[in-house]
Structure formats: structure tokens, C-alpha cells
Amino acid sequence: MKRMNNDLFPIVDREQEFQKIYNNTIEKVNYINAKYSETHNGVECEELDSLIEQMNNFVLNLTRVTKLEEYLSFKLLVQKILRLLGECDHDGVIPPIEPELEPVVIKAILQNLNKKLVGELLTAENDYLITSVEYELYKNNTRVEKVTTNSASVTANFTSTEPGSYHFLAKYYWADKFKQIMSNTVVIEEEVVVPPPVDGEFPATLPYSNLWAHTVNSNGNYEITLNNTWGIIDSRLAVYLDGQLSEVLDTTYAAGNKGSAKNVVSTSKFPSNKDLKFVYKVTYVRDEKTNDKVVVYYKSTTGNIEIATPDGGVKYCNYPEWNPEIEYGSATGKIVFYQGFHFKHSGWASKGDSPKTNGDWSPWTMLSTSEEAAINCPGNHMMDSAGTAPNAHLEPMDITKVEGLGTPMEKMHITYTPEWGKWGGRKYTPKISPWNKISHMQYAFVDVIPDYTGNFFTDKDDISHLKRSAADAPIGTSLKVSPNIFDPGAAFSAYGGTNAFMTEYNEMSRKYPYVKPIASLGGWSRSAFFRDAAQPNNIAHFVQRCIDFIREFNMVGIDIDWEFPCNRRDGDLVDSPNDLGSPRAADDEEFLFTNLMQALRVALDKAGEEDGKYYFLSCAIVSGKNHILKSGIGVWHPTCDFISYMTYDVHGAFDSITNHQSYLFQNPSEPSVETNPNGNAMAISDLIKFVTTTYGVPVNKITIGTPFYSRGWSGIFKPTSGWPTSMPGLFVETNIDAASNGTKGCSAPGTMDGGRGAGVLPLHHLNKLIKGENVSVRTLDMNGPANPHAGTTLIGADFNYYYDEAAQVPYLYNEKAGIFYTFEDERSAETKCQWIIDNNLAGVISWDIAMDDYGIDMHGSSATSAYPSLYQADHLLTSVIFDKFKANSLRLNYLNRLARR
């Protein structure tokens, strides 16, 4: 743009310019007078006559014109006359005139040149016609400066340099006119020294991630915590401002194995008007032998996040409760919360010197309304509905605005939510589960069935057809196989209640984005068609269907529960009419299973690249030594992110001698020749040593099982030779009454039993027996097989609790009735978790969440009426595991171990 200097006529001298003005003016006046005479012929036009007189008077005085704005006024007068003449012109001709000389202001701009604010007007070429400009500078809509110039060509240099948001209002004058225009907004930011990013370490733009780190804004600092990172070998932290890489920080680790990281950075370090994201780039080793590495991004968000938090939906204030056991001493200004209000420590306070809300003297001063607002406590310690959490902030959550929080656990707790849990009298659905205290929720189960329809879901599985196919289909069948859902009409109902299983599952997984929702395929009764899915002509189709499924339902991975490769068995139709068994299983399934896992790993990695996220692959595998020897684990374990050994059901009523179903250590008093003649059963500690040393499975990708239920025997009476050990009922052979003809097998009564019986009691019932309460056994599902022990009442007073210190596991024994139950309780679960921590395992897998003790008998008449009120009921063993695995307990354990060194 052409810029003008401060002279009125910068290019030619004033006399020449006025001569041009004079000649042009005389020409215009002569034309107008002639036109006026021609068109009016003596007819008076009052308005036009007055304007003609003003024009002629101007010409008479033109020699005295010294200011250009006077001539501009004359030009406007001439234009108005010509318009009037045009309206009266019979032939419609409007005489040509010169272009309008008014300055046309394009825009006003404000620039920040290294904290120097400069304002100017961008105008047309005739900006020299502007005679003066006032620049008024505003900060946050308050005027802070005013600069006056005599021309639009002069910029305004402001002196304000304080951080804040600025704009200016320009007022300019031309001729006898006045106009004003507002500029853009410019921000002066606080000084931020940002080192250049490390090339190639992070992407230049914010990477997508469905995994989360936990960020809180506390006392002027951002605290970014990365948890649950089993198998991690390295992590770095990057800062993204408005989606662009700004800075890379060294990671501060909070645990010795790099399994936890916590960075603290000042909030003032980053500009407040930028969208701020922290991203951990985490590197895992999938296979230590081949050094196969996986890189995963954990994204964090700042600000107020309305989402269920790791403490169960409660947001806490930054200020603690007043503690009567603390001697606060002399005044410090410390803020505490007491009886619904915040108080400042303003005087000497001994133990028990409480704040006063009634105006009486105290060493504490109640915060004023403005001080209360300034501390920005969310919800101001509003009570929850029960009045039991005075520092709880139970504000409504809008999941559509949530980007996520970090998992509250250092170790993994993987559990299953069983889709059939809603059937019969159980009424258990995902909303009841304590999602705030687990890390992975596996949907049990996605069926593996022939794809007869080409669609995901059929109206109802044809059980008779499936049973025949499972038994008769030729090896290498060309049947396409698809993951499907059994009874989809119930699982995917949109009508609420206990039928809305998948609806609730999706809702809860969105509400708790730090819990990883995973699809578990197969299971005990529905694994018959895995061998077909893994055939060379079917595997590509099956794998793609798996990818489609997890994309459809927003899951983050696939868990293969093939029970079990190479293990042939017929369906147990007495126990369940839906059990397909694995009647065509053969030794080639070691290779089929390996091929399936490798194909899934490739497909999941490819899908992850396409979707901008990481998809997990895991498997659940039996812990028996004979199966492990045939499983091919030494080949396929690198494909898995974690491997879950089902270290439960190791012993049960399928054995003739009582034992523990899940035990940490081998009891040296066990008569193994009788109880474990083939050496198949292993204690958990022996199992982990075997698979890590024999097959090189990384210990930090292994989870071990914990049962939330019992296995049990009946007919357990004291032998004539006496108890085999000092513990009554343990390692004793069953002695079934001949009158029963063995129809009950050797199982104890169980409320979860089908047609055959297995002594399965959920934890709530076991705890009732421990407390001396009675438990009634009934048929659970009226449409399923009858419980062979239905009608039995277990007398709680007849049961004694025992704890095997050597094996670290409890059991219940009723000597009078000859009934024995093996199970997991708080003590054994806590011991197992500590062993996991000490030996750097990934975590636990529990079967299943619906059988934990959450305070109600869901198998009785109260189940239906209780269902609506059981939203996120507290679960006993889940809470024990959470308390051991949450971040603080691990850090304390690590510090304690350092101290012992």
C-alpha cells in the first residue's frame, strides 16, 4: 500500500493543487447552472434552488479556501445537486462526476511486536484526507491509553506491556465527518521460555489416544500421573499447545520399575489462552528375546473434568478436613474444612481446638464469601445424598465432554462381566460393577459360531444345529466362522432393565474411559469352532470380523478364551444344554492357535494404525502343566499384551480328594502322589517360575487368577486313620453315602450349580456361612437344568473357617455334614496381590465380578426389588485388590523395600 507523509499535499505544491481545484470547480458550476436552466425553464424547485445558491456562493469565495475539508464539503454539495437534477432530467442522463474522495478505511489492526503494541489504520490511497485520529487502547475492555495523531498514516506506539488481552478503538475525522472502527484482539503473554522440541521424538501434531494419564490442577501446579504401565521400559512427556508440539520433558518416575510416573509443572509455565495437552509416549517390550517393542501414547487433559474419578465419582477439595489429633500451633494461614465451611488458621491451636461457626472465639477464622469463591473448591463440600461424605462433590457428569482420566491402579485387575448374569434370579448387569476399582472389563462372552447369515447377530442361536455341527463338522471345514453374541435379543435390548446388558456395558465404559473394555471370545462352553476359525481358508475372514466387532462396540482389544487347544471333550449337556464341548479337538490346534494369535496381532496393529489407537490382544489359558506343554506358548506369547493364567479350578469335585482350587504356594504336607498323581496341578509360584524359565514369558505381562466363588466336596468325613494333616477336612477322599447311588457325585451343594453340581457358592453366601447364617440352595434358572442339591439348607453354625498358612488360602469345613468349600477371601487375596507386587507380575484376573460380595443375595427373592438401587455397589474382594494395587500402596511398598536395603 502507498504510504503518505504528514503534509497535506505531499506530491505537488499547494498552489498547483488549488489551481486544479479551482478549474475543476468552475467547470462543475458552469455545467450545473446550464443544466438547471435547461431543465427547469423558470419552474421553481425550492430544495434545488437553495443548493444552487450555496454552490455559487462557494465559488465566489473560492479564492479564500485554505483547507481541503472545505472543498470536500463542496464536493458533497455538488453530488447532491446532480442527483436532484437527475431526478428532474427528462432524458435520464446523469452527468459524470469525479470518484468520491471520502477515505475508505479497510480495517484497524493491532500488533504485538515483542511486547510492543502498535496500532494503525489500513486505508485507501486517499487516506491523506483524514485530518486527525484518536487511538484508544483497551485492556480487557477497560481503556488504558490514548494516542492522538494528525493523519491516518501515523502509527500509534503504545507503552502498555502487562500481560493481558488488548484492542483499540480508532476515531478519525475527514471534512466535517466523524467515524470510528475497532481493531482485532491481541494478547501479551507471560514470558515462557520453551526449548525446541526434539526432532522425531514426538509427532508435530497431537497424536490420537484412547489411553489416559491423570491430570489435576493442584496449588498452582499440574500433576500428571501415569499408572498401570506394566512392562514399560521408557516414557517421555510432551506438551502440546493448540494441538502443536511445544516442549518435551524428562519423565519423573514414581516407582522403581518405571511402572508409574508423576510430573509436576507450574501452571504459570503455559499460556492460559492455549489448549493444553500433556502426552506420555510409553515404550513397552512385548518380547524380551526378540526385543519386540510397542509404542503407546497416553494423553492427558487439564481443567475441570466432569467424570467419575478413581475414588468412585467423588471430586475432592484441595483443602483437608480439620483434624482434632493435630496440634496446629501458631497461626499459619493454613486452610481446613470443618462442618460445611472453610477456615483459616489465625491463632494458636492446640489439639482439639476446633473452628467455630457461631461467632465464638476460636483459633480459626471462617473464610468470607469472596475468599470462599477464590479458593475455587468445586461444589464447596456439598454432602452426598446419604450425608456420609462431607467432602464429596457429586456434580452431574456429562460424558460427551470428557477426554479421560488415568487408571487409579498401578497393577491390572482384569475381570469378566458375564452376559448371562442377568438371567434367572441373579439380575446382575454392568451398572452394578465397581468400574472405579478395576482396570479391564472383559465382556463374557462373544460366541464363536458358524456365520450362517453373514450378519453379526441372529435372532437366536440354533443350539441343536450348533451341537451337531460342533460334533460332526469335518476337520478343515469351509464354514465361515464369525464372532457372535448368544441371545442377542437380550444382550442388545434398548429398553433398559436387566435386558439392557450391552447398553449398560457401553454406557459404563464411556463413563470410565480409564477402564479398558475388551471382548472375550469363546469360553468353556463355546470354544468348539475356534479350530474352524483358525483354518487357513477361514482365518482372514474371522480376524476381520473380530476387528469389525470391536470397532462397532468401541472396545480396545480382544481376549481369546479358547478352552482349550488340543483338549478334546464332549459337551456336558447334564450341566448345561448349551455346552458345545470341543469334540473335534486335536493336537494340530497348537499350530492353529499360534496362527490365530499371530494373525490377530497383525490385524490389530494395522487397524490401530488406521484408527489412531492401540488395540490390545490377550488370552486366558489354563494353568495345568500338561496343557502348557502342548500350548505352543513359547512361539505365540510375543503377540500378547498380557496373558491370563486361570489359576482357579485347579482342584474341585472332579477330583476325589479335597484340595485348594487356587493356592499361592505348595503345602509340603500335601500327599501329592494321591492328590496330584500326574503332576499337572501347580501352585501359582511354581507355575510362574515354570513358564518364565522354560518359555521366556515376561513376568510383567502375566496375570494370575483369583476366584470370587467356591468349589466344594460332600461326603468328607474323618478317616479311621485320622486326618492326613493337622487341618480337618483337607486332603481327604470323599465318601459318598451308598444310598445316593453316586447321583450327586462328590460335589457340595452350590447355589450356582447346574445339572451336575460343583459346589459353587458366590462370595456373599460363603461370608454368610462364616458369620453363622444359613444359605438356601435352589434351582437358579427355571429354564435351565435343575440343581441336584435344590432344597438343601446349609447350616452356617456347623461350618468352621480354616486358613492354610503354607498355601496361603482359606477353606470352610462342616464336619457334621461332611461338606468342604475351597475359596478366596480378603486375607488370601491381599497376600496374592502383595506377591504380585513383589514379583513384578502384571496383576490379577478374577472370575467373575458378579460373584463378588456386594452385600446382597442376588439369588433370592430380594434380587428383583434390589436391582434398581444397586448402582455401583461396593464389592468386597474387588476393593481389597484395588487397595493393594492403587498407586499409593505401591509407592509405599517400594519405599519400604528401599528402606529395608
Short overview:
The chain has 901 residues and is α+β, with helices and mostly antiparallel strands.
Describe it for me?
With 901 residues, the protein is of the alpha+beta class. Helix content is 23%, strand content 23%. Among the domains are: 14-88; 105-188, Immunoglobulins (Immunoglobulin-like, Sandwich); 203-313 and 399-409, Immunoglobulin-like (Sandwich), CATH 2.60.40; 335-396, no CATH class; 411-622, Alpha-Beta Barrel (TIM Barrel). It is elongated and about 145 Å long. The two termini are 76 Å apart.
Mean of the pLDDT scores? 78
Tertiary shape: elongated
Give the number of helices.
Answer: 19
Number of strands: 35
| Uncertain stretches of 5 or more adjacent residues | 1-12, 88-99, 303-316, 379-406, 453-460, 486-499, 738-744, 889-901
CATH superfamily of the domain at 411-622: Glycosidases
Strand order of the largest sheet: 19-20-22-23-26-27-28-35
- CATH architecture descriptor name of the domain at 411-622: Alpha-Beta Barrel
Computed structural class: alpha+beta
As a percent range, the share of strand residues is: 15-25%
Spell out the key features of this protein.
disordered C terminus, 5-stranded antiparallel β-sheet, 8-stranded parallel beta barrel, Immunoglobulin-like, 901 residues, alpha+beta, 19 helices, 23% strand, 35 strands, single chain, disordered N terminus
Question: What topology does this entry show?
Answer:
Blueprint lengths: L13 H27 L5 H15 L7 H21 L16 E9 L2 E8 L6 E10 L2 E8 L6 E2 L6 E11 L2 E6 L3 E3 L25 E5 L2 E6 L5 E10 L2 E6 L11 E6 L9 E12 L4 E10 L33 E4 L2 E5 L18 E3 L2 H6 L37 E7 L21 E11 L12 H10 L8 E4 L3 H4 L9 H11 L4 E8 L6 H4 L5 H14 L4 E6 L6 E2 L10 E2 L6 H23 L4 E7 L2 H6 L2 H4 L5 E5 L25 H4 L8 H12 L6 E6 L3 E3 L49 H8 L4 E2 L16 E2 L5 E5 L4 E6 L4 E4 L3 H13 L4 E5 L15 H4 L9 H10 L1 H14 L1
